[in-house]
Design brief:
By secondary structure, the protein is of the alpha+beta class. The protein has ten helices and six strands. The strands form two sheets. The protein has a three-stranded antiparallel β-sheet. It has a three-stranded antiparallel β-sheet with strand order 4-6-5. Helix 6 crosses helix 10. The longest helix has 20 residues.
Length: about 200
Amino acid sequence: MSDSKPEQSAARKKLSTAMAMLLFTSHRLPGVRGYELRRKLGKNYLKVVESLNHRLEHLGLRVKILFETSFDREPSEEDYDRARFFITLADPISLSDVVAAGWRVDELAVLSGALAILFSRGGKAPKKEISELLESKLPKWRVDAALEKFVRRGYLVDSGDGTLSVGWRAVAEVDQKQLLKSLTEMQEGREPATQQT
């Protein structure tokens, strides 16, 4: 019995350390790399992350792992070391919740439209082309301001050569398949099943 107390205390400390590392970032990007977790938590850091995930489920959150590349095999230890771990929502939230969190509907329309274009073109497209398509529905100043905002927030990347690409945050937070499915349903005149940012 006395042996389990120190083990529980050590496990609790590892969970709180993992939570702190994932929430309180010192980098420009959220979360941490796997090798940083391994260095701080030990070689079984993936088990600590899995345990943290179970605890976060009750709060509607989860630890998401974003690998540098996609592959058709089981990720290796090295792949996990290079991957980025961070906390995100477990399920999509409704449009009303997004608006209540301070997002504007017209800005969401710009982001959704820009991402749909980018996703359908392999992740990159000319900025001018995206702007022109969006300006057919919204004023130019609104489109320009929203695109700039989403570049600053990491949803889009402006390469400086007139090309926009999908940013790390869009890859992490936006379900590409669900977004395209929702837009297709809207185009067909059906109500989308869920709202996705």
